[in-house]
Write a structure and sequence with these properties.
- The protein is mainly β and 208 residues long.
- The chain is built from one helix and twelve strands.
- The chain has one helix spanning 151-154, and strands at residues 15-16, 32-34, 58-60, 66-68, 78-87, 101-111, 119-121, 124-127, 135-139, 173-182, 187-191, 201-205.
- A five-stranded antiparallel beta sheet has the order 1-4-5-6-10. A four-stranded mixed beta sheet has the order 3-12-11-9, with no helix packed on it.
- It starts with 14 loop residues before the first strand and ends with a strand.
- 39% of the residues are buried.
Length: 208
């Protein structure tokens, strides 16, 4: 299920730790609305710790933590890390064959009890999302891929319980995969934090 929206994850929250269908039955789309603007702004971490690349993202390696909402990873309201980035074979009976390569990004996510994201999903406020809609792809030469949230990626898996939940709220832990379709054998993928204005996080693939 694809969420068709692009909203802030945490209003003006800080990025942390630079080092640290052919199917006959279509799923109903969730009802979405913009969450109220936050009245407080977390103190950003020191600018010297935010090393960004040419795309404005923090370069990361598989297994490294990323986070937002706080002054350090210790008090971050959102913590996450990809544990693997690997090609995957689509096995759903109704799946379309990817033109490029289906890439499975396995992610662990944890939010604090006071986490408040910027998404309202079906009337539930304060959520965030790692849906494929919030990812970008770049070829090895830096060229932006036009679209990695493709129909083939959405319909890739027969067992959809393997997928990360479409939305995550306060005080939750989740583990699962996000499927993306990349167009080049090498390059990088970036998660932009559900529309965070300060950039996002970026990983090379194949994972190094």
């Amino acid at each position: 299920m694809k969420l068709s929206y692009a909203l802030p994850l945490l209003a003006a929250s800080a990025l942390l730790l630079a080092g640290c269908s052919s199917s006959a039955q279509a799923e109903a789309q969730p009802t979405l609305s913009v969450a109220p603007a936050q009245t407080s702004t977390p103190t950003p971490s020191p600018s010297s710790s935010l090393v960004t690349n040419a795309h404005g993202n923090i370069p990361k390696k598989v297994g490294e933590l990323g986070g937002a909402g706080g002054t350090s990873m210790t008090d971050a309201a959102l913590k996450f890390k990809p544990t693997s980035i690997q090609p995957i074979t689509c096995d759903a009976p109704y799946s379309d064959k990817p033109v490029g390569t289906a890439l499975a990004v396995a992610i662990e996510v944890e939010t604090s009890a006071d986490f408040k994201g910027g998404l309202n999903v079906n009337g539930a406020p304060g959520l965030t999302s790692f849906d494929a809609h919030y990812w970008k792809g770049y070829a090895a030469n830096g060229t932006r891929m036009n679209k990695i949230d493709t129909i083939a990626a959405q319909r890739c898996l027969a067992d959809e319980s393997r997928l990360l939940p479409n939305s995550i709220g306060m005080g939750e832990k989740a583990t699962g995969i996000v499927v993306l379709e990349v167009t080049t054998p090498t390059g990088s993928i970036a998660y932009d934090g559900a529309g965070m204005i300060s950039g996002g996080w970026e990983w090379e693939y194949p994972a190094k």
